[in-house]
Write a structure and sequence with these properties.
65% helix, single chain, Ribonucleotide Reductase, subunit A, mainly alpha, binds fe (ii) ion
């Protein structure tokens, strides 16, 4: 475990340095949302909505895993950063749905509310199984977006093509992080790791399956378009992963004796390099890390450029668009208005949200005597029965006083009326 911890921490540092230097992007300014095609098909929008819905379970993906791995500095910090990167994926997809005019701000809110009702639970209870699961999931997601892009390209939607391309890079980097972790684990516990991997493959299903309204119909649309279905899962996800890990379809290691000896020598060398430290100002710094990440002056000037204050105050925007629909906060930040579509676009999720429970308004009045009786029975069965009994007696007394005074007032009123007539 200590060796794995060392590995995770090292991988985290490399990952963060690379991400900060090369992979940071801005979901508000790097996607040309205005170039979303207002004539794109509703099938395209349904696919985007399904993927966006999966990404919307981020609060569960992050919080539940974080509890499991909180003691690992490398894994937990990676996970937090991974969560930040994933958050931009749903923002971008949602932004496209709004900009293309496929969904209104009201529909976005309704989908969000529907998705938040059910929680996603961890499908496996061991951290290593969760790493295997996330690895599979990341590669599946990568192919989902790549395949979706072919449809976006056919429909000439530059905004979606750009978004999907940037997101796919993130997904590929995520897959690699998890795949490297699985490989490292295989070095220290090959049998156990392969066992976990097989278990995950045998029980794999995409997140959101039981939470997203209308998931079956949405999955059918994805399969029909050839974006993702059982065939793509085997061809693009399961087989390549087994190949990457040098396993055959029965999860047996494919390796010659020579390769095994080479791997063992490399593992030993890596271990020796990882423990070699040099002293810098009293800190034991790993020798292998020295001088790896040079000072990046371009990045600094970029940051300083971004920090320049913007002059003037932006005018206050009205709450709705001229057609009366609610403004999108996302598109306001991007600085564009949604396209107006010639045909309405159908949301699978919104069509499958179960009918809301009827509220109290309009509900038939219950028998009040029965209500009072049940209240009394409940009170008598409570810890503070005596107190409740006294309270009820007091209410009865007050009601009696009100009733008597009402009767007296009625009588006086009638007398007065008779005197006038
Ligand atoms: Fe993602
Ligand atoms: Fe990802």
């Amino acid at each position: 475990m200590a060796r794995m911890e060392d590995f995770f921490y090292r991988e985290l540092m490399k990952y963060l340095a690379l991400a900060e230097q090369k992979r940071r992007w801005n979901p508000f300014t790097d996607i040309p949302y205005a170039q979303a095609n207002p004539e794109s098909s509703q099938t395209l929008a349904q696919c985007v909505e399904t993927f966006c819905a999966v990404e919307m379970y981020l609060p569960d993906f992050t919080s539940k895993m974080l509890h499991m791995i909180r003691r690992s500095r490398g894994r937990s910090w990676f996970h937090i950063n991974w969560g930040y990167e994933e958050s931009k994926h749903s923002l971008t997809l949602e932004g496209w749905l709004l900009a293309s005019g496929h969904r209104t701000e009201e529909q976005r809110e309704a989908v969000q509310a529907a998705l938040s009702t059910l929680e996603w639970e961890l499908p496996y209870d061991h951290p290593r199984q969760m790493v295997c699961y996330t690895m599979v999931q990341e590669l599946a997601t990568f192919w989902n977006y790549r395949n979706l892009e072919t449809i976006a390209a056919k429909e000439k939607d530059l905004a979606l093509i750009t978004g999907l391309r940037i997101i796919s890079v993130d997904e590929r980097v995520h897959y690699n992080f998890f795949r490297n972790t699985v490989k490292e684990w295989m070095k220290w516990d090959e049998e156990g790791t392969i066992h976990d991997l097989k278990y995950v493959f045998d029980h794999f299903s995409m997140p959101g399956r039981t939470q997203i309204p209308g998931y079956d119909e949405a999955a059918m649309v994805l399969a029909k378009t050839g974006i993702y279905g059982p065939r793509e899962y085997i061809k693009l996800v399961k087989n390549p992963i087994l190949e990457d890990l040098k396993l055959d379809k029965d999860f047996h290691r494919i390796e010659s004796e020579e390769e095994r000896a080479q791997a063992e020598a490399a593992r030993k060398a890596a271990l020796e390099a990882s423990v070699e430290r040099i002293d810098i100002n009293g800190h034991a710094v790993p020798k292998s890390e020295i001088g790896k990440h040079p000072f990046n002056s371009h990045a600094v000037s970029q940051v300083l450029e971004n920090l320049k204050p913007t002059r003037g105050r932006k005018p206050e925007l009205p709450a709705t668009y001229p057609n009366g629909l609610k403004r999108s906060a996302f598109l306001d930040v991007v600085g564009i208005e949604p396209h107006v579509r010639s045909e309405p676009s159908r949301s699978i999720i919104l069509d499958h949200i179960p009918d809301k429970l009827a509220g109290s308004r309009g509900m038939e009045l219950m028998d009040n005597t029965l209500n009072q009786r049940l209240l009394a029975i409940g009170d008598e069965l409570s810890n503070n029965a005596e107190e409740m009994r006294e309270e009820r007696a007091q209410i009865r007394q007050e009601r009696e006083v009100t009733r008597k005074s009402r009767v007296k007032n009625d009588r006086l009123f009638r007398k007065h009326e008779e005197g006038n007539s």
